[in-house]
Amino acid sequence: MESTDIGTKSVPLQITEDEAAVYDRQIRLWGLEAQQRMRNATILVLRLKGVATEAIKNIVLAGIGTLIVLDTDDVSSEDLGAGFFFRDEDVGKKKVDAAKARIESLNPLVAVEEFHDPALLDGDAFNNLVQRADLVCMTDWDREGLIRINDVCRQYSKPFYAGGTFGLLGYIFCDLLAHDYISPDRSAPAPGKEVPAKSIKLTATYCPLSNALQHRWLGLTRKQTKELNPTVIFTIFAIWEYQARHNGKLPYEGSAAAELEAVASSLLGRAEVNRQALPAVPRELIETMATTAPYELSPVCAVVGGMLAQDILKALAAREPPIANFFAFDGSTGGGAVCRMSMP
């Protein structure tokens, strides 16, 4: 039977010689101090779908200290496509029970804890779980759920990531609070002098998802608006709004296209997007999402999950600027864009 003892933070560990040998390449890339931070990091991942599967693989291989996975669902036949931790014989089992041993096999140096009790998703039990973590990541959830989890993370000063896919579209959002990181000094050198080979400490101030969704696109030229590819962003926002209106359900048939189109148009107007650049979300994309949004496509999950893991590791290492703060991916073109929403 699953235990609901979520424990407390342990004493910081030092990287041993054997571990240093395992992570030698990463230590050369990030530095020993950054790898040490990863080694002592506890990451809480909520929901184990395709994006989370890919992200977990990468952060475990990178050498975090502890991974906590919380998912209340059973494995379904639909999970077998993008969820490579699952096998045919796992259908009907709890996802976390089926995946635990396979996650552990990726890197025996990482402690893996799994929970499937629904009581841990709310109230004091969930608050205690968040307090244990150094970073929280929730994937493939509705807008209201993401906002609620983000707010809890802010209450306890915990960095928060969200990620997910809707058919060919994917997204990543992050709220890293006030995030300090080291970046190369790219300031212009004095005349006649070479660029100094040094790094500087910078701070990025993030905002919660609830604030990011109120972002206004005023002042952007037609070219600037197109470069940010708001078509994908507002299609994702329209799907979230559709979920909110339909008790968390995703559109699953063509008849939802008219409502999705109306929602997207309303959101575009409210956000004051340059209508010369984007007069409307293309009808073709709306019709595609009206029938494909519920489905997970392995290549899209791989791209979004890989980028999600990469950014989590950046945040832990504090060696490069992470996403600021919303990334949208279009699987039909293979392109993506980062939009800075409501950040200073």
Features of the shown structure:
344 residues, alpha/beta, Rossmann fold, 2 domains, 8-stranded mixed β-sheet, two-stranded antiparallel sheet, 13 helices, 40% helix, 17% strand, UBQ/SUMO-activ_enz_E1-like, nucleus, ubl conjugation pathway, SUMO activating enzyme activity
Task: Characterise the protein shown here.
The protein is globular, with a radius of gyration of 21 Å. The chain has 344 residues and is α/β, with parallel strands linked by helices. The N and C termini lie far apart (47 Å). The model has no long low-confidence stretch (mean pLDDT 88). It has helices spanning 17-22, 24-30, 32-39, 50-62, 95-106, 123-132, 143-155, 209-212, 222-227, 230-245, 257-270, 283-292, 298-317, and strands at 42-46, 66-70, 111-115, 135-139, 160-166, 169-175, 178-184, 199-205, 326-330, 335-339. The strands form two sheets. It has an eight-stranded mixed sheet, with helices on both faces. It has a two-stranded antiparallel sheet with strand order 7-8. Helix 5 (95-106) links the parallel strand 2 and strand 3. 41% of the residues are buried. Helix 2 (24-30) packs across helix 3 (32-39), helix 10 packs across helix 11 and helix 11 (257-270) crosses helix 12 (283-292). The chain has two domains: 17-179 and 298-339, NAD(P)-binding Rossmann-like Domain (Rossmann fold, 3-Layer(aba) Sandwich); 217-292, no CATH class. It has 13 helices and ten strands.
